[in-house]
Amino acid sequence: MGDSPLSVKIEPTHIGEHLAGREFVYLITNSNERSHVVALRPVLTNNIARFANTGRTPLANVAANSSVTLTWPPCDSTQTHEHSKYSLVADGVATVEGEELLVTITNAVFHRPA
Question: Does any domain span residue 2?
Answer without folding.
Answer: no
